[in-house]
Design a protein that fits this description.
The chain is 27% helix and 21% strand. The chain has 120 residues and is an alpha+beta fold. It has a five-stranded mixed beta sheet with strand order 3-4-2-1-5, covered by helices on one side. The model has no long low-confidence stretch (mean pLDDT 82).
Length: 120
């Protein structure tokens, strides 16, 4: 058998899973912590109705909310509960099933956000 001195370490249990960006262990990853800390949005909350790509079903989209991921999820839950429908939070956008634009704008303004109606 031939021994190669240029071969590197193939497997190690010392560090566990490693982050591909910052090369730290997953528990000590600094790039994901920075991404979580930065709130997404410009402060002007836009509420729009969309049916494109949804089989004709209307969805109310809330974009531009300057909150972190956890606070955005809580706000999404509050909006869905007030509207009495389902929905989700994806990539900083709150999706509420159904056409609830006016109610969502009213609720957001009551919570202190500068909410505006977007689209037609």
């Amino acid at each position: 058998m031939k021994s190669s001195s240029s071969s590197g370490l193939v497997y190690s249990t010392e560090g566990g899973r490693m982050c591909p960006e910052c090369r730290n262990s997953a528990a000590q990853c600094v790039c994901k912590a920075q991404a979580r800390a930065a709130p997404v949005g410009n402060g002007v909350v836009r509420v729009a109705r969309q049916t494109k790509g949804r089989g004709g079903k209307a969805v109310t989209l809330v974009t531009g909310v300057a909150l972190d991921a956890m606070a955005l999820a809580v706000l999404g839950k509050q909006l869905r509960t007030a509207c009495g429908c389902g929905g989700t939070v994806k990539d900083g956008v709150i999706e509420v099933q159904g056409d609830h634009c006016e109610l969502v704008v009213k609720l957001l303004r009551e919570r202190g956000h500068d909410a505006r109606r977007a689209g037609g």
